[in-house]
Amino acid sequence: MRKQGVLLVNLGTPDSPSVSDVRKYLDEFLMDERVIDINPVNRTLLVKGIIVPFRGPKSAKIYKEVWTENGSPLLYYSIRQKEMLQDKLGNKYAVELAMRYQSPSLKTALESLKKLQVESIRVVPMFPQYASASTGSVIQKIMELVSKWQTIPNISFVNSFHDNDGMIEVFAENARKYQPETFDHILFSFHGLPERQLTKADHSGKYCLQTPNCCARLNDVNRFCYSAQSHDTARLIAEKLNLPKEKYTVCFQSRLGNSPWKKPYTIEVLEDLAKKGAKRLLVFSPAFVADCLETNFEISREYHEEFRNWGGEKVQLVESLNDHPKWIEALAGIVLGEPIDRILQPSE
Ligand SMILES: C=CC1=C(C)c2cc3[nH]c(cc4nc(cc5[nH]c(cc1n2)c(C)c5CCC(=O)O)C(CCC(=O)O)=C4C)c(C)c3C=C
Ligand SMILES: [Fe+2]
Ligand SMILES: [Fe+2]
């Protein structure tokens, strides 16, 4: 009997923390028209002329700090997730892993599924919240590659899973051991996005970023908005932990370049809280399903140190979903297309 194919796709990471591998990675990643969405000439000048030569060595230094004996944490946990999902789904399924940039490549993973002549392919971009720069880019690239095949199997894409109950529960469970109620404040720090990418994604053209809290609540107008989905993920985790609204803040990290990105910036929230006297902060990073440079370095190291400089004591990261067995169970539900039964709030 033919198998059902499953393809997990995460962002990608350099092959090694050497300057040349980090430059190769940044080049492929940032030349993507969905990531740096400006005109191609300016993108080429910016990426190849400035970011890759100058940021490359700085990023390589950071990658060296997060690199472990198992390599890049993002790749290590992605492989674990693939292996554990294969065990969970059994031999009627063939599970492959790919990275959007660098290795293992999408081309190789798709070729493996093609060789097996799988009945269907279910693609899961491993980003809980939809963004054109992450999920959109994965879907576009796969469609480009598969469009050249003679026989194209049934193929389906998971667009987002920001409200998946199993995923929400694992984030909450990972937090419980730190006793969230003992912290001065909780942050839900999502990967940032340029504001223009949020407004471009607003098909009504008159909703996102128009009023101060337009996307602090998910509704039927902003249902594909990265910010609105991020707020929804945060709200659901907070509800699981019985956190009152005033006890937590949704914020956005990792800004690149000078254009405005989605606010509030995590670093500014940290400074503000420290100056108001907060000492201990618990930080979730629910845009990722695996720990990576952004969590292990930017939050655990950089933000912790900055917060201490402003008079705080501790920034405690809640670890990501990584290889938690309940996350793999939730992932199996996402692959098998569990029904989405939550009713969206009417637009405000
Ligand atoms: C939620 C998923 C991600 C979105 C959306 C995203 C957008 C985005 N990122 C950059 C620039 C950089 N991101 C970097 C690292 C990085 N980004 C994500 C995820 C998303 N990025 C992950 C998982 C990682 C970590 C990878 C790892 O190896 O651990 C980096 C590289 C690190 C550095 O030099 O700081 C850059 C650069 C832009 C411009 C962008 C635009 C929408
Ligand atoms: Fe990024
Ligand atoms: Fe929005």
Automatic annotation (TrEMBL):
Entry's EC annotation: 4.98.1.1
Domain of life: Bacteria
InterPro entries per UniProt: Ferrochelatase, Ferrochelatase_C, Ferrochelatase_N
Ligand binding (Fe(2+)): H191, E294
Pfam families assigned: Ferrochelatase (PF00762)
Subcellular location, record wording: Cytoplasm
Main localisation: cytoplasm
Keyword flag Kinase: no
Recorded catalytic activity of this chain's protein: heme b + 2 H(+) = protoporphyrin IX + Fe(2+); Fe-coproporphyrin III + 2 H(+) = coproporphyrin III + Fe(2+)
CDD domains named in the record: Ferrochelatase_C, Ferrochelatase_N
Entry keyword set: Cytoplasm, Heme biosynthesis, Iron, Lyase, Metal-binding, Porphyrin biosynthesis
Role of this protein: Catalyzes the ferrous insertion into protoporphyrin IX.
Homology family: Belongs to the ferrochelatase family.
Name of the protein in its database record: Ferrochelatase
